[in-house]
Amino acid sequence: MNTSTKQKQLRNTLTSFYNNPVARVSLEVFLSLGLVIFLGLFAVQPTLITMSNLIQEIEEKRELSQQLTQKVAALSTAQSELAALQPQLALLEEAVPSEANVVKILKIIEKLATENKVIITTASLPQVPEPSASSSAEQTQQDLAVQVVVTGDYPAIRQFAESISASRRILHIESINFVLNDKRGTKSLSASLQLSAPYYK
């Protein structure tokens, strides 16, 4: 009898407890919490992973945007510097051109000879450069050898040599040899100049 009475009391106590609204709410809260945990693990987790990936991608794109902004600023600076140096580039091209241009070199030498009152007796090139088929981005310096023989008095030949050295088109005097000619009692001075004209190819 004691056992059945105790069981009845326990049943009555549990029934009254579960009939109590607080117990029902507690059970609903427990089930809701379990549902939230379940949804958090299986439903919300992919969304959180996607959000995390999106945040990381936004950060990477922000860094890329900053790098691109820096590159644009550097290009803008380079462009303004190039615009400032543009007039000097024409002088550089005139001094050391991107092609040999043999005719122009010979015209410069002829003009300087006329200005300094010396006579060109011979002008020769040991080798005529071939025109470059394609203009590559990376060019190397080449030297065009020119041999010129002039006649005149010593001050005129000296002035001619100085004019060659001071020419806007760079012409290096590698060597100069003087020869005193005596033909039938008439003496004349001639000079053989070995020149090199640098250019890029």
Q: How would you portray this structure in words?
A:
By secondary structure, the protein is α+β, with helices and mostly antiparallel strands. The protein has two domains: 1-95; 102-129 and 139-200, 2-Layer Sandwich (Alpha-Beta Plaits). 59% of the residues lie in helices and 22% in strands. It contains four helices and four strands; from the N terminus they run αααββαββ. It has helices at residues 2-19, 21-95, 102-115, 154-165; strands at residues 119-124, 141-151, 172-183, 186-200. The protein has a four-stranded antiparallel beta sheet with strand order 1-2-4-3, with helices on one face. It is rod-shaped and about 165 Å long. The model has no long low-confidence stretch (mean pLDDT 82).
Q: What is the number of helices?
A: 4
What is the helical fraction, as a range of percent?
Answer: 55-70%
The shape is: rod-shaped
Read across the widest sheet, the strand sequence of neighbours is 1-2-4-3
| Share in β-strands | 15-25%
Low-pLDDT parts are: none
For the largest beta-sheet, the strand count, sense and barrel status come to: 4 strands, antiparallel
Overall average pLDDT: 82
Report the order of strands and helices.
HHHEEHEE
Q: Give the C-alpha Rg.
A: 48 Å
Query: Distance between termini?
Result: 119 Å
Strand tally:
4
Total domains = 2
Structural class by helix and strand composition: alpha+beta
| Multimeric organization | single chain
